[in-house]
Structure formats: C-alpha cells, structure tokens
Amino acid sequence: MAHPERFLLAGVMGWPVMHSRSPKIHNFWLAKYGIAGTYVPLAIRPEGLRAALRALPALGFAGCNLTIPHKEAAFEIVDRVDPLARRIGAINCVVVAADGSLDGYNHDGFGYIQSIVEAYPDWRADAGPIVVIGAGGGARAVLASLVDRGAQEIRLVNRSAERAQALAKEFGPPIEAAPWKERHAALAGAAMLINTTSQGMAGQPALDLALDTLPVSAVVSDIIYVPRETPLLAAARSRGNRTVNGLGMLLHQARPAFHAWFGVMPEITAELRAMIEATI
Asked: Which residues are the active-site residues?
C-alpha cells in the first residue's frame, strides 16, 4: 500500500518499553510489504501518557500499541473505545482517526484465540471445562475471547478470591470463581488449562499448580513467551499434554493493529517467528 505523501509512523508506549518485541515484528512487516514507515519504542512514564497520546496526531503517527502499565489508563484518555475493549476494560491499540481523534481497541483476545487455532486447528472452546488461572488484564482478554468462541464452562482461579469473584460476577455465566485452595481439584475433567499470571515468567517463581488431576487430553496454554517454555508447560508436555506458549498471542495480536495503521493484514511466517524466537 503506497503512501507517497508521508512516512508512516507507529510505535509502542510503555514504561519500561525497550524489551518489547513489537518494533521487530512491525518493522519486519513494513519491509516485507514495501511500506515507507517505521515503528518505534516510546518510553512513556505514567504521568506523561495523556500528553503522549494526544500528541500522536500532530506528530503524524497512525497510532500506537500500549503495554504495561498503560493499558487501563489509556482507556480513559482516548475518544472512543471499541465495544470488545470496553468489555475487557483495557486497550492495547490506539488508531488515529482522520480528524485527529483517538480510537481504542484491544486485540489481545484475538491474538490469543488465533495462537491456539494456529497450533491446534481442531480446538474448540466448547469441548469441555476450561480452567483459567489469574484475574488481571490478560485474564480479562482471554475470558472475553473464550466466551465469544462459545465456551460453556470456565473455572476462574486466582490467589485473591475477591478479585476472581468480582470478575466472574462482571462477566457472568459461563464463568464461575473457584477458591485458590481448590485450584488442583479444579483441573479434574478440564479440556483446557490457561495461565494468565506472571508466574513462570523469567525471573518469577513457577506457578504453584499440580497437574495430577488434569486429563492428558487437555490443552495447556501459557500467555508467557519469555521463557518459551515455562515450568508449567514443561510439566504438561512431559506428561503428554498438548501445549501452547504466549509467542503466538504476541504475533497475532499485532496483525489487526498493523492492518488498521498501514492498510495491510500481515501474515505470520516461519521467518518472522524464528526471528522473534532468536531474541528470547
């Protein structure tokens, strides 16, 4: 898609942000599709977020991604919020409209579902009970996407029972909160287990969860991608479960953002995946 009159700009706002793989992903696509533009990391402190977002139109940006700690704060700054992002309660993508106003979207749920379907095309959200560990922003995006895909029973487990109960009440059926002390038993009969917490991430302790009652037929998913195989995924793989890490979610959530900014829906290729894996 040619834009001879301008050099296209987009980026990712976070604090910190230099660890983000998003610039590598988007700049790979810009080069692949011959688009004159660049995608840059934008180190924005929380107190500077409003000014930074409002400056996007004047600086000629098509939009930006948002990462920790800005996803919820930006929700209150943009002019319009997509209905799905409103349900999730956070945005990870801002698109600058033609009149300079800002639209907020959340593509994390899309990225998550696409990563699962890519790994296991026969996967179905209604195949059986799904256990989700965690009740933060990642969990909200995953839960919304699972409900939209037709999940019939979701068991939500979190260290803070109050937070899990509040989230289950907000979303309603098919989500039910289970106490943390019952997390092991909650795996019985499950068709899928999803970790949305930071437990197992590089530098963090492993998730305290025994898989003894989890059926070997269940898919085990972790939205973490550093390391590529968390202790949870390693334990699941060793007992015969199919596993999916968080790299596919990262890659796929970037696709609709790139399309909104640059007019091309990009593909996830083996070359791109290998390039990002090499940085992990």
From this structure: 71
